[in-house]
Amino acid sequence: MSTARQEDTAPQEDTASHVLLGNRFARELPEMAVPWRAEGAPGPRLLRLNEALAAALGLDPAWMRSPEGLRLLVGTSVPGDATPVAQAYAGHQFGGFVPRLGDGRALLLGELVDGHGRLRDLHLKGSGRTPFARGGDGLAAVGPMLREYVVSEAMHALGVPTTRALAVVATGRRVRRETLLPGAVLARVASSHLRVGSFQYAAATGDVGLLRRLADFAIDRHHPAAATTERPYLSLFVAVVAAQAELIARWMLVGFVHGVMNTDNMTISGETIDYGPCAFLDAFDPAAVYSSIDSGGRYAYRNQPLVAEWNLARLAEALLPLIHDDQEQAITLAVESLDTFRPQYADAWSAGMRAKLGLPAGLDDAVGSALIDDVLGLLEQGHVDFTSFFRALGAAARGNAEPARLLFLDLAGFDAWLERWRSLGPDAGAMDRVNPVYIPRNHRVEEALDAATAGDLQPLEQLLDAVTAPYDERPGLERYAAPAPEDFGAYRTFCGT
Ligand code: AMP
Ligand code: MG
User: Fold this and answer.
1) Is residue 425 situated within a structural domain?
2) Does residue 10 belong to any structural domain of this protein?
3) How far is the CA of 211 from the centre of ligand 1 (A)?
4) Nearest to 452 by CA among 189, 111, 252, 169
């Protein structure tokens, strides 16, 4: 990009030089990468380090905790040959196209090679203003960065593809929101930060060479099998459709509501990204919306598959010039591929629901579907807690139906369903492996973040302990399994994080 490199005010101390950070994105896609530096952090203090993830990336956890390690984690000291960049992307935000978004408060520090030889982006969020900051201050507060840490690590433990949280470091700087809040930087790791919006950005430049380079980069990084097919760029699209169909089904199966499924928040890899106003369902409600800015319910729980498909249509549009020289033919091919989203989503969803219900393989499709539809109807009608229900049903499969029955007022309706379900011989052990006990419940997340913001990290540690081993029921953690008390009220999460 043409934006000039920010002046470095002080020479950078090269203390992180043993960390090997590649700069493939910066080198191969310079039109979409603005070399940039993090803002200084007056008093970096580690709030949380993901030691297991650090080790998996070949980073020494003890070094990460050292003053030099912290300087890497806030971006003020990077290896000499690294090229931190702010990435350019576009995006449809709530349906409206914005041609230039980009990392307004984030930096890609570079790529690491993990213990399996895979490339992983090391990325910072809250590291100061960049040329994409528009009106924003470039900063992030402790609460929202820890929120991303908790929810993304919980999602990972639930088996949902996601970016990972490596660390949250308080900067010692205050951030102005409704009030003055302590600032922080989140260090996160992803298989890449390529978004649907990255392709929209490249396409909007009109530079087909750039678009092709971006697509080749994505194929190489995420979907290498596409390279050897007759139509590599169509195959790339097909692979993204498949990854997203699987991802969204997994969200739905754990009751996750992303909250802001703009095209800039949808990855090419199929990982969940950008945890802002997200939340997990408590009472099952297909219309659930948590984001304070989503007044129309565009990103409600039940809309997520439809929105994903809509976003994929935007990706298809961006890829059209690569799919076929003839635009009509390109559209026909893209539409055919997009049409695979619904059946793939439906298959992933019903396979997942059958697993949650412990149903035997080979069960008649119609029987399975009716059981699923009927139980979801009962959950909705009775405002039953989604997560508690499926876990309690495991006990019912072992012969103790009381914990599940206690969740319903309409017992006649539930008992009738229970009898049908029990007659199929559900597998309790299998159910316990897919139905979590602990999810990051909204009231517990708020409690932990409030305490952390006030300086007490203990509730956060305990919450993380629960949600990072979600299937493993442990004494002493009952409060993390229980639904919110009535007086917690209607939950709202806020953007502008
Ligand atoms: P998000 O809602 O976090 O996905 O962000 C949408 C866009 O706004 C992205 O381009 C972000 O980089 C940018 N953005 C969000 N918060 C800030 C901030 N405090 N300062 C600068 N840019 C921001
Ligand atoms: Mg975003």
Assistant:
1) no
2) no
3) 24
4) 169
From CA 152, how far away is CA 161, in angstroms rounded?
9
Residue 71 makes CB contacts below 8 A (sequence gap 6+) with 13, 15, 16, 44, 77
Asked whether residue 153 falls in the same domain as residue 228, the answer is: no
pLDDT in tens, the chain (497 residues): 544 444 444 444 446 778 999 999 999 999 999 999 999 999 999 999 999 999 999 999 999 999 999 999 999 999 998 999 999 999 999 999 999 999 999 999 999 999 999 999 999 999 999 999 999 999 999 999 999 999 999 999 999 999 999 999 999 999 999 999 999 999 999 999 999 999 999 999 999 999 999 999 999 999 999 999 999 999 999 999 999 999 999 999 999 999 999 999 999 999 999 999 999 999 999 999 999 999 899 999 999 999 999 999 999 999 999 999 999 999 999 999 999 999 999 999 999 999 999 999 999 999 999 999 999 999 999 999 999 999 999 999 999 999 999 999 999 999 999 999 999 999 999 999 999 999 999 999 999 999 999 999 999 999 999 999 999 999 999 999 999 887 777 777 654 45
Same domain, 147 and 235: no
* 398 within domain boundaries: no
In this structure, what DSSP letter does residue 191 have?
S
* Token pair in block for residue 269: 């890899």
Measured by CA distance, the residue closest to atom 6 of ligand 1 is: 101
Q: Is 265 a pocket residue for ligand 1 (Cβ < 6 Å)?
A: yes
CA of 304 to the centre of ligand 1 (A): 21
| Domain-embedded: residue 455 | no
- In the chain, the number of structural domains is 2
Q: Which of 294, 314, 349 is the last residue of a domain?
A: 349
Ligand 1 atom with minimal separation from the 106 CA:
12
Domain holding 186, by residue range, is: 15-190
> Do residues 5 and 35 lie in contact, with contact meaning Cβ atoms separated by under 8 Å?
yes
- 103 CA distance to ligand 1 middle (Å): 7
Comparing CA positions, the residue from 369, 431, 419, 359 lying closest to residue 395 is: 431
Does 92 contact ligand 1 (Cβ within 6 A)? no
Please work out whether the CB of residue 293 comes within 6 Å of at least one atom of ligand 1: no
Last residue of a domain, one of 190, 206, 225: 190
Going by the DSSP 8-state scheme, the letter that residue 360 receives in this structure is: P
Are 83 and 154 in the same domain?
A: yes
Q: Would you state the structure tokens that stand for residue 206, as one six-digit string?
A: 């009109």
Residues 80 and 210 in one domain: no
